[in-house]
Amino acid sequence: MFKSVSSPFDRSRKRFFQPWPGRGPVLADHEIADAVKYGQLKVSPYDPQMIRPAALSLRLGSDAKVLGAENTVDARDRDTYPELRAREPDELGRLIVNPNEMLLVPTFERIVVGDKLTGILDGISDVARLGISVVLSQQVSPGFGAPDGAVITLEIFSRLPVPVVLYPGTRICNLMLIRCGRAVRSYSAMSHNHSSDMSAMPSNWAAYHDG
User: Fold this and answer.
1) Which of 33, 46, 50, 166 is most deeply packed, by most CB within 10 A?
2) String of b and e for 67-102 (b: at least 16 CB within 10 Å)?
3) Distance (Å, rounded) from C-alpha 19 to C-alpha 14?
4) Burial state string for 181-210 with b = 16 or more CB within 10 A and e = fewer than 16
């Protein structure tokens, strides 16, 4: 009988997904690179320089929308939801965030998170110290973006009494990646998901109140 021989690719995948003593649940820099190499994380465009010690940095997109509401917002009535108004970059390509203003802005990158990973999205301290909150919704579920990749919508809010100028294409947040068991149903298989978003999208919450 012939013995079954696994390929180097199969052995590498096995090592990546099987923990050993001393390995934590959070992916370190070299493990993030392996996740990209073996397809458990897809990033487009991919820049290895965006890998941090225990996170992947994502950059700011330019397709910004301002949340505008003048009346009460009813979670069950999408007709009352905030209007999305385009915020075009200025003549120098910059995005302006005004005081107490909420912008929805996509990440520059499109990503796919594999079915054995989950992510925690967080702002970076240098941005926070300018009075800017970048991430209000943090979890990125297994299967997000499958199969073709999707942007992540960032919720950018200014806490300063003066405008703040942001630059599309610059590092804006971190995605920490965590090993997890394979979900029975991935995020992309769920109703009302954001796995095909190509731009900043409004809330789908009203759909969960239907029926």
Assistant:
1) 166
2) beeeeeeeeeebeebbebeebeeeeeeebbbeeebb
3) 9
4) eeeeebbbeeeebbbebeebbeeeebeeee
**In this structure, what token pair is assigned to residue 163?**
């405008």
Assigned superfamily of 23-209? Deoxyuridine triphosphatase (dUTPase) (2.70.40.10)
Strand runs (DSSP E) across 70-170, as ranges?
A: 83-87, 95-97, 102-106, 110-113, 117-123, 132-133, 139-140, 153-158, 164-166
Report angle CA 171, 99, 90 to the nearest 5 degrees: 60
| Residues shown for the chain | 211
Predicted confidence (pLDDT) per residue in 54-102, tens digit: 999 999 999 999 998 889 999 999 999 999 999 999 999 999 999 999 9
Residues ≥6 apart with Cβ < 8 Å to 121: 58, 135, 137, 138, 139, 140, 152, 173, 174, 175, 176
Burial pattern 129-144, b for ≥16 Cβ within 10 A else e, equals eeebebbeeeebbbbb
Both tokens assigned to 139: 């979890």
Q: How far, in Å, CA of 154 to CA of 211, rounded?
A: 29
174: enclosing H helix or E strand: strand 171-179
pTM assigned to the model: 0.85
